[in-house]
Amino acid sequence: MKYKNLFLSASLVLATSIAQPAFAHSQMTLSQSSPSDNAMLMSAPEKLSLTFSESVRLTNVTLASKNGEKIDFGFAPAFDKSARFEWTLPSLSPDTYKVSYVVMSDDGHKMTDSYTFMVH
């Protein structure tokens, strides 16, 4: 029994030390977007906005049609941190669009994600 408790204690310490680096990274997430994920819009949106759970450096955002054609909307990497970003969009034709983004936290951790919306 004594060795079993020692083994369990050592296992717990090892598991905690291995998991610790994962908790060191920031938990930045996209908390709101416009258009929203899976939105089905009857008219083209005028703006694209992304709001994150904390201030981040936005290093890349792309907007692409279903066939992969990139839509230029004037994105430039953000050197200053912010939780909210917004751009005016050109007129979008009916299609399914994919918004992809890359953000970076203070510790250099990058998060890449995407979502889609549809314009009827």
Describe the structure.
The protein is built from 1 helix and 6 strands, in the order αββββββ. The chain is of the alpha+beta class. Strands 1, 2, 3, 4, 5 and 6 form a 6-stranded mixed sheet that branches. The longest helix has 23 residues, at 2-24. Residues 10-25 have low confidence and may be disordered.
Q: Which features does this protein show?
A:
single chain, 120 residues, alpha+beta, six-stranded mixed beta sheet, signal, CopC/D
Lay out the secondary structure.
Elements: H1 2-24, E1 30-34, E2 39-41, E3 47-65, E4 82-88, E5 95-104, E6 110-119
Parallel strand pairs: 2-6
Antiparallel strand pairs: 1-3, 3-4, 3-5, 5-6
Could you tell me the strand content as a percent range?
over 45%
Element pattern in H and E: HEEEEEE
**Number of H- or I-type helical stretches:** 1
Distance between the termini: 68 Å
Short description:
The chain has one helix at 2-24, and strands at 30-34, 39-41, 47-65, 82-88, 95-104, 110-119.
